[in-house]
Amino acid sequence: MYDDHQKVVLIGDGAVGSAYAYAAINQGMTGELAIINHTKEKAIGDVMDLEDATPYRSSLKIYAADYETCYNADIVVICAGAPQKPGETRLQLVTKNLKIVKEITKKVVSSGFDGIFIVAANPVDIMSYAVLKQSGFASEQVIGTGTSLDTARLKIALAKMFNVNAQSININVLAEHGDSEFAAFSSADIGGIPLLNLISQEGYTLKDLANVEKSVRNKAYQIIDYKGATFYGVATAIMRIATAILRDEGSVITVGCYLDGQYGYDDVYIGTPAVVGAGGIQEIIELPLNIVEKQAMASSVETLKKTTRDSMIKAGMINYLL
C-alpha cells in the first residue's frame, strides 16, 4: 500500500514542468508538490496560479522551494534544461543539458534524497544515464520518460488509422527517444488481434505502417515548428509514471530503463516496457523482436552509446564511464 501523504519535487518550471504540475492537480495527486526553478520568481508565480485550481480537483499542497526540500521527497522530477529549438535534434541538446543535469543531481543527492528520479530533460536517455552515474543510485531508482511519449503518439496515429480508441492498442516504441527510435510492430495488437494480421484485413500494407512510424518520429518537429515546444503529452506521461510509483501499482509502462543484459545490451538507457511501482523499476520487460527490429535496436543503441560517451567526456564526467 502507498502512504496517504506523499511528496514530489519538480525541478524545472518551464513549459513541461508547469504542464506536469497542472496534470498532478487534475489527476488528483495529494500530499506535497514542491517546485524548484533557477528563477525562483517564476516558481512562486506558478504556485500562486496553480493553487487556485486545487479546490476543484485536489488537496495538493504546492509551494516554491530550494534543493534542501528534496531530502524527504518520494520522487524528484527533472524537467530542467534548454528546450529543443526548431530544426534542432534532441541529441544536439546534449552538451548544454548535461552540465545542467549534472549540477542538479549533485544538489539533490546532497540534500539526503533517496527516492526515485524521473528524468524528462532531453535528450532523455543520455540525461537519465548521467543522473544514474552522478547520483550513484540503483538503476531502479532512475527512470527516464524514454519512449513513453512516442508510444502515446503511435497509439494516437493507429487509433485514427483503424478508428478505435487509443487505449485499446497494445504497442511500444522502443530504444532512443529520438530519430533512431522504432515501433515494435511484431508484438503489437489491437483488441487482441495481432497488428500485422489486422493490416491485411483492413487493406493496409507494411509500407502504410512505416509511414505511420515516420510520422510519429517527426511529430515533435512539427509541433515545435507550429508552437515552439511540446509539453502536454510528456507532462501527462510523467504524471502516469509518478502515479504508478506513488500508488505502488506495478503497472507496465513504456519508460526509459538502464539495460543490464536485456536485449543483449548493457550500460545504456533505452525506452522499453517495464513494471513500475513504489521502488521504481521493478522489472524490465524484454519484448521479442523480429530481425528488422533487432537491427533497429542495434543501430539505436550504437547511436546512444557513442553520443553518451562523447558528451560525458566533454562534460567532465569521464570517471563515470565504464
General description of the model:
This protein has 322 residues and is α/β, with parallel strands linked by helices. The chain has a domain at 7-146: NAD(P)-binding Rossmann-like Domain (Rossmann fold). Helices cover 43% and strands 19% of the residues. The protein has helices at residues 15-26, 40-51, 54-57, 94-110, 124-135, 148-162, 195-201, 206-227, 232-246, 291-314, and strands spanning 7-11, 32-36, 61-64, 75-78, 116-119, 142-144, 169-170, 173-174, 182-183, 189-190, 193-194, 251-260, 266-277, 280-284. It has a six-stranded parallel beta sheet, with helices on both faces. Strands 7-10-11 form a three-stranded antiparallel beta sheet. It has a three-stranded antiparallel beta sheet with strand order 12-13-14. Strand 8 (173-174) and strand 9 form a beta hairpin. Helix 1 (15-26) packs across helix 9 and helix 5 crosses helix 10. The longest helix has 24 residues, at 291-314. It starts with 6 loop residues before the first strand and ends in an 8-residue tail after the last helix. The mean pLDDT is 94.
Characteristic terms for this protein:
322 residues, alpha/beta, Rossmann fold, six-stranded parallel beta sheet, three-stranded antiparallel beta sheet, 14 strands
Spell out the blueprint of helices and strands:
Layout: E1 7-11, H1 15-26, E2 32-36, H2 40-51, H3 54-57, E3 61-64, E4 75-78, H4 94-110, E5 116-119, H5 124-135, E6 142-144, H6 148-162, E7 169-170, E8 173-174, E9 182-183, E10 189-190, E11 193-194, H7 195-201, H8 206-227, H9 232-246, E12 251-260, E13 266-277, E14 280-284, H10 291-314
Parallel strand pairs: 1-2, 1-4, 2-3, 4-5, 5-6
Antiparallel strand pairs: 7-10, 8-9, 10-11, 12-13, 13-14
Helix pairs in contact: 1-9, 4-5, 5-10, 6-8
